[in-house]
Amino acid sequence: MRRPPLRPASSWGPPPWLWLTLVLFLVQLPTLIGHALGVGPGLGQFGEAGRGRFVTAVLSVVQLLPLFFLLAAVLALLAPRARCRVVERRYGLLAPDDPLMAPPVPAPGNPGEPAEPHFSVAMSAFVDEHAPGTRLRLSTQEGLSARVYPGSWRTTRIGVFAPLVHLWQTDVEAARAVLLHELGHLRQGEQHVTGLGSPFTALVRVWPYVLAAFVVLPVTLLFATGNATARLTLAEVVLVLVSVPKVLLLVVAALWSAELGADRFAARTSGADTVVRALHRLEKGDHGGLARLYHPPVRMRIRCVSRAETTRVQLLLTLLWPLALFAQLLLTTLGAVPAYALLGASSDRAVRQVLALAHESLTAQPAWWATLAVAVVWPLITGGRPARRDPSATARSTRAYAVAVLFPAVLLLLGLLPLVSRPPGGVFADDPAGPTAPAARAPSGSGPGPGAGGGAGGGATTTACPSRAAPRDPTRPPGLLTFTPGKPSPSGDSEPDRRPGRRTFRTLDVTSAAPLSGTRTQAQEVGDRLRGARWTLHDDGTLTADLAELPVLRTTSVDATTRLLTGERTERTDISATTTWMEARLVAGAGRTARLDLIRAATRDMRVVVDCREFTSTSSTAQRLSLSLGG
Q: What is the Cα–Cα distance from 539 to 401, expressed in whole angstroms?
């Protein structure tokens, strides 16, 4: 007599956190794309050298990569037949009646002894008994035991690999438990999101390599070459490093919850001891290497299977995803504090700002509201009490259900209460020398994910997005030194220069380079750039150099061998305005040598709007230099 299919709705099970993760990704997709596209180009222009721009561009790729996996997940969900063809081609999965997989012709034997059915026939009969319409596909590959995947919108297939075939021949009950585990995924419809060919599983599998290739190596290059001096670039580095585990947290929690729920379904049907035996037998193949990321540790699975009906295990399965969401909020908060410090904010203001934004994010993002809704509605849909005809099923723990509802409810209540306020005057109000900004939100850079928006956990704001206008030209620094007319020390040739026409010089040596403001290293760098420069004194009294960064110097006075000059030059980009002022004294006699004394000052004003957040910064340096010129 054929047994009816089992119905897991007769007992408790974990909420569909895997589906909730996908839905929240889709809801926040436009915001995530806009943020990821805006961070790299904006902050990349703050780099002092090309390597800084390269690193910030690479870091923006890290934030975009999960979006590609999300797009792949949506396409796989909408095109299950295409996913089925790709999966079966990749893993060499064939139908049991395929000539390569068909059972051999039985040898002549005792006519009265019934022939033992081939393993593929027995497996197919077992699966069809519990889930009619589900089809097996066989592969000779090692490394996996069995995986579920969609054949179409309404059909499902289970891929069976060599280790499970061997287990079927040595311990058929344990092998059946493995198949029941896959059927547990099928009962929740998880084959469309997880299983073979799942982009979510692929994201978890490749993310460690992404960390090495797109984060560790570029950041190491940035520090090794000495270009990690831009504070905004460093802030972005910190936030991307924090975003790496954030991307994994929710996806891994959702996958683990689904795996533990499928284990529980198998234990309900075949017994906990049988499932434990199967886990021990297939531990190395299914849980080696990076598989540990998207499958829970075997010890954890064994404990949950052995104590499946206890309140503690029910709490774990129900709260695994909400706890990951809370951990994501904590990571964002911890990452935003050093980022603000790198941007020039004082520690107390940074902490207050981050706590305020984390507090706002509890109610501003849909993740916690969705979590509460699922925790409340899920038991009503699945049924809180077991069916009378299924004595193996047990009731949902009232305590576990209450905690699952109270956890997001309490956090949302805290988010609605006015517990934390932002620092008055803005986060940068106490540091006029650093970046100043009426920043609407905390610096972001967090990777995409439910609950991951701008700032410490994605706090929202009603402040209008600032315009992207470039800053105004910097004003001349007050008290900038100038040369006064008078007879300077001789240059070695005190006779006046009476030769008509223009003269050309080349920098022979930088005899002195002293900082007036800034560091000595900066003064030496300016001097190094002037070494070997070529100068031209034109007929109209202007002095030019072959260095694009130097302004054209115009004569203000001439006295015997001394010429005083002044110049100003402004460079503009979409986010910055840099003005260089220069005062010069050229002492040139009738010989071929001359001396050029320079007073140089440069001020850079920068302003960038990234993800509706404004960052501004002003930096100034001044040097006094003396150059020996040759004709």
A: 90
